[in-house]
Amino acid sequence: MIRVRDLMTVDVITFTPDTEISKAAKVLLENRINGAPVVDENRRLLGILCQSDLIAQQKRFPVPTLFTILDGYIPLSSTRQIEREVRKIAALTVSEAMTPDPVTVDPDTDLEKVAGLMVDKNLHTLPVVEGGRLVGIIGKEDVLKTLLSGQ
Fold it and tell me: Which residue in 24, 47, 60, 63 is deepest, having the highest Cβ count within 10 Å?
């Protein structure tokens, strides 16, 4: 059975929370990667920054939609959700744009589970964490390579 440790990339491009958004975008584009983990000085995973997080900056300010009933207003989107979108739009650093608490796998996770997570949750990249620290990353391309090698 193929495990994450057999396929993962261990030399991972990472960001720190204080990395500037423009620098992070440049790194993603130059390396042709969809996203990169955000780690602290001890390589503890804090989040992940994906191209979609950066594209959110091109979005217009979200205007809350309201529903009126009996002269009262009921917001159709939560205040917390609106605040989160505004922070991403106005982000200057990775910590303001990243997705916190990303889905992760450990080195002993089997390939079938990884494929299921990627499909079910529409994920392109999964950080590999062991003992609370980032040890690698596995992406859709890594999974696809097993098809070519006949494993």
Answer: 24
- Yes or no: say if 85 and 62 are a contact pair by the CB < 8 Å rule: yes
Distance CA 113, CA 91 (A): 33
Tokens describing residue 146? 């097993």
- Phi first, then psi, for residue 116 (nearest 5°) are -60, -45
Do 2 and 136 form a contact (C-beta atoms < 8 A)?
A: no
pTM over 0.85: no
Q: Which helix (H) or strand (E) holds 129?
A: strand 125-130
71 sits in which H/E element: none
What pLDDT shows up at residue 82? 54
Walk along the chain (151 residues) in steps of 10 and give the mean pLDDT of each run.
94 96 92 94 95 69 48 53 56 88 96 94 94 94 80 56
Q: Which residue has the tokens 């002993």?
A: 108
Would you say 119 and 143 are in contact if contact means Cβ atoms under 8 Å apart? no
